[in-house]
Amino acid sequence: MTFVPYVEALAFWGRAVQNGKVPRAYAVGVLLTHPLITEHSPGTPQQKADLVTADLDAWEDRVVEMLWDPQSDIAAGLRRCERLRAEPE
């Protein structure tokens, strides 16, 4: 089985639920089987379900939080996205 990082799974299922392609309860069930939740998250099954449900409800914010590097230079990153020099002249 191929491992998919939780952030990618959350983005996939969050978008599917948002677009009405998948029922929310189904997506929660799938995310509850992710190894990060089953093997590395402390708490009762209900606490894990609450955690996954909260992540799914705010999936866009959670994905950004998981991927954003607070030490990075945001302005340089934006300039690179626009194919500009990282440092202005």
**Overall mean confidence score, pLDDT:** 84
Pairing-aware structural class of the strands and helices?
mainly alpha
H and E order: HHHHHH
Main pleated-sheet profile: none
The residue ranges in which pLDDT falls below 50 over 5 or more consecutive positions are none
Strand content: under 5%
Kindly provide the radius of gyration, computed on alpha-carbon positions and rounded to a whole number of angstroms.
17 Å
- Tell me, briefly, the overall form: globular
Helix content range: 55-70%
Distance between the termini: 49 Å
Task: Tell me the number of strands.
Answer: 0
Helical run tally = 6
Structure commentary:
- The longest helix is centred in the first third of the chain and has 13 residues, at 6-18.
- The chain is globular and about 45 Å long.
- The model has no long low-confidence stretch (mean pLDDT 84).
- With 89 residues, it is mainly α.
- It has helices at 6-18, 24-32, 35-40, 45-57, 59-67, 74-81.
Give a quick rundown of the structure.
This protein is 65% helix and 0% strand. The chain has helices at 6-18, 24-32, 35-40, 45-57, 59-67, 74-81.
Question: Strands, helices and their partners?
Answer:
Elements: H1 6-18, H2 24-32, H3 35-40, H4 45-57, H5 59-67, H6 74-81
Helix pairs in contact: 1-2, 1-5, 2-4
List descriptors.
6 helices, mainly alpha, 89 residues, single chain
